[in-house]
Amino acid sequence: MKIAIYPGSFDPVTLGHINIIKRAAMAFDKVIVCVMVNSEKNGGLFAPEERIELMRKSIQVSNVEFDVNYGLVAEYAKEKGARVLVKGLRAVSDFEQEVQMAMVNSKINPDLDTVFFPSNEKYTYLSSSVVKELARYRANLDEFLPREIIDDVKNKLVRSDECNGRQH
Ligand code: ADP
User: Fold this and answer.
1) In this structure, how many other beta carbons lie within 10 angstroms of the beta carbon of residue 63?
2) Is the pLDDT assigned to residue 87 strictly greater than 60?
3) Which of 77, 127, 142, 145 would suit a FRET pair with 11, their CA atoms being 20 to 30 Å apart?
4) Whose CA is nearest to atom 18 of ligand 1?
5) What pLDDT is recorded for position 39?
6) pLDDT value of position 51
């Protein structure tokens, strides 16, 4: 069985991520979308389990599973018997870092390869950070987020900004 891992922060999942998940699900027998909790991007708006909940609400495809991992993705892939990492490429700026990561990962786990899916042109500018910034300014999020989670994201931002003393 061809198992692929799609790692990322997904804080929160966007339509750009969903597009990659669906395409990966067509290409592989099983796709494990894994929220990677790493030391650099600490904190985040949603807790890892909440991010998974939002993804479950947004996409139901039979060969797609969701998980969370606190370690190295190359080791995680080994545990899961996966030989492929899926990455989305938005722009040239993503490319340099992603190729470097791909090389590091195959050094740690020589059986592991990275497959890049070019972003759909509709979503090349889209990132979770952009969505959070737009949501703060009450922009319409219909073109950026799965509709099932728009209210969750708006409500979460209001609550977290209240905690941080921001005004709405
Ligand atoms: P971000 O916080 O920048 O949205 P993530 O860590 O959640 O990034 O992204 C996980 C993976 O999804 C990465 O491979 C990233 O390149 C890819 N990705 C993120 N947004 C998009 C998009 N709009 N289109 C295609 N791929 C994307």
Assistant:
1) 15
2) yes
3) 77
4) 88
5) 63
6) 97
Longest dimension (CA), the chain: 51
Nearest to 18, CA basis, from 67, 56, 59: 59
Q: Is 41 a catalytic residue?
A: yes
93 is catalytic: no
Strand partners, 69: 36
Angstrom distance (rounded) from CA 94 to CA 147: 26
Cβ atoms 46, 84 nearer than 8 A? no
Please determine, for residue 104, whether its predicted confidence score (pLDDT) is greater than 70: yes
pLDDT over 70 percentage in the chain: 95
Token look-up 């018997």 returns 81
Residue ID of nearest Cα to ligand 1 atom 3: 127
Based on the residue annotation, tell me whether 17 is a catalytic residue of this protein: yes
